[in-house]
């Protein structure tokens, strides 16, 4: 018979039925200079102040992504709780700028990773996925345009967007500049855009991991562990982060304001379910129509080139052909 403490512990362990789908999760939470710990009540972020230790409890089951900024430390029990809830942890630089590493939730199948890997490994299919990504940005891409032509058209589109927004917000001259070595010398628009893009990368990273895909197997970008994240994030910059950055041209705290406003913008446009749907449609449009978005059961099976998927955890000794010589 189990003890009350055992029952309490089991109730505290989330099941797949209890967990919210990734598409329903809050987008991201950025923290810096705090210590994240697990206590008897839950996971909290704590900081020392003149009033003592102040704590804020975190909605771990509802967070898709936690961005861990400089000065942040986290205990192993807290990390274990995030892992059980499928929350991605992404280590980022100051102000959420630049993502360095992410922790993959474990309770996933490899269905979408396999779709991604097959498409990435086949040059013809990889080209089709890349073209779908450009077509998604354009709305209506020119029929028969090559990948090189689409890259050029995308560059023209972004330049035109910069000019339009600069005129709208009274900016006489704008040039995109990202220089970590001279960070504080950048203008407010560049600071806001870098901070907003980093938050977008973190959110997309969380969605990619939640589907079980590889952030490294990109179709337009390559050569980095974040290649696929950059591919997907670029679907939304012209709609979300670029207009937001220009609107903060007069801000005295453009990085902070970008993160605060972006979180609300993500909620209003329901970005997380949009990312999930778009990733699926980019990789396998036909399969995406019949596949539910979100976390799936942890199913392990065996692969066979002739029979397809076979159940795991089964002893197949009876299937041995009679003429096979046993080597022992």
TrEMBL record:
Pfam families: Cas_Cas1 (PF01867). It comes from the Bacteria. Its EC number is 3.1.-.-. Its cofactor is Mg(2+); Mn(2+). Belongs to the CRISPR-associated endonuclease Cas1 family. Homodimer, forms a heterotetramer with a Cas2 homodimer. HAMAP family: Cas1. This is CRISPR-associated endonuclease Cas1. The lineage of its organism: Bacteria, Bacillati, Actinomycetota, Actinomycetes, Streptosporangiales.
């Amino acid at each position: 018979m189990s003890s009350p403490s055992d029952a309490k512990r089991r109730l505290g362990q989330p099941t797949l039925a209890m967990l919210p789908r990734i598409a329903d999760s809050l987008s991201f939470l950025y923290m810096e200079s705090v210590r994240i710990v697990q206590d008897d009540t839950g996971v909290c972020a704590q900081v020392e102040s003149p009033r003592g230790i102040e704590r804020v409890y975190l909605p771990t089951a509802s967070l898709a992504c936690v961005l861990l900024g400089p000065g942040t430390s986290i205990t192993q029990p807290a990390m274990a709780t995030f892992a059980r809830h499928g929350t991605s942890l992404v280590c980022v630089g100051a102000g959420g700028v630049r993502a360095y590493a992410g922790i993959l939730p474990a309770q996933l199948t490899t269905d979408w990773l396999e779709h991604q890997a097959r498409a990435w490994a086949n040059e013809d299919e990889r080209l089709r996925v890349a073209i779908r990504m450009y077509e998604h940005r354009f709305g209506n891409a020119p029929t028969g345009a090559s990948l090189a032509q689409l890259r050029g058209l995308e560059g023209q589109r972004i330049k035109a967007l910069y000019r339009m927004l600069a005129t709208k917000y009274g900016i006489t001259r704008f040039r995109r500049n990202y220089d970590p070595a001279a960070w504080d010398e950048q203008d407010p628009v560049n600071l806001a855009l870098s901070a907003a893009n980093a938050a977008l990368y973190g959110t997309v990273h969380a969605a990619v991991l939640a589907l079980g895909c590889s952030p490294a197997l990109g179709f337009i970008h390559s050569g980095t562990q974040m290649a696929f994240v950059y591919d997907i994030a670029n679907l939304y910059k012209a709609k979300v982060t670029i207009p937001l950055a220009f609107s903060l041209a007069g801000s005295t705290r453009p990085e902070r304001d970008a993160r605060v406003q972006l979180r609300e913008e993500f909620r209003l446009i329901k970005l997380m379910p949009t990312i999930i749907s778009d990733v699926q449609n980019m990789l396998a449009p036909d399969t995406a129509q019949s596949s539910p978005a979100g976390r799936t059961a942890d199913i392990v099976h065996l692969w066979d080139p002739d029979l397809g998927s076979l159940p795991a955890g089964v002893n197949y000794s009876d299937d041995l052909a009679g003429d096979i010589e046993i080597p022992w």
